[in-house]
Amino acid sequence: MTGYLLRRILSLVPTWLGISLFAFALANLAPGDPAELILQRQQQEPPTPEQLEAFRERFGLDDPFVVQYARWVGQAVQGDLGVSLRSGQPVLDELVSRFPATLQITLPAFAVAVLLALAVGVLSAVRRGSLSDHTSRVGALLADSVPSFVLAYLLIIVFSVKLELLPVAGRGSWQHLVLPSLTLGLAATASLMRLTRSSLLDVLGEDYVRTARAMGLPWRTVVLRHALKNALIPIVTVSALIFAGFVTGTVIVETVFGWPGIGKYVVDAIFARDYAVIQGFVVFTGSVFVVLNLLVDVLYVRLDPRVRLGSNR
Amino acid sequence: MRPSFLSGRPVESLDGRKRVWAPASLCLLLALLLAACGGDSEPGTGEQGGDGAKPAGVQELVVAYEADPWVDSSESDQKRIPSYPLNADVCQTLVTLTPDFKVAGGLASDWEYVGDNTFRFTLKDGPTFSDGSPVTAEDVKYTLDYTAEEPTTSGFGFIGPESTTVIDERTVEVTPTEPNLRLLEQITHPTYSILKSGSDPLADIDSLVCSGPFQVAEYAPSERLVVERNENYWGEPASLDKITFRFIPDDTTRTLALQNGEVDLITDVPRAVLPSVESLPDVKTEEAPVGGVNLGYLARREVDGTERLLADPALRRAAAHSINQEAYVEGVLGGNAVVVETVAPPAVLGEHADLVKGIPYDPEQARRLLDQAGWQMGPDGVRVKDGRSLELDIVFARIDLTTAEFVQAQLAEVGIKGNILRLDLGAYRTRLENGKYDIDLSVPNQNDANPAFLLSLRWYSRSSVSNAEIISPGPDTEFERLIDLSQEATDPEELDRLAAEAMHELVDNEVGVLPLAGIYRIYAMKDSVQGFEAHPSGTNQRWSSVFRGE
Question: Which ipTM value was assigned to this complex?
Answer without folding.
Answer: 0.74
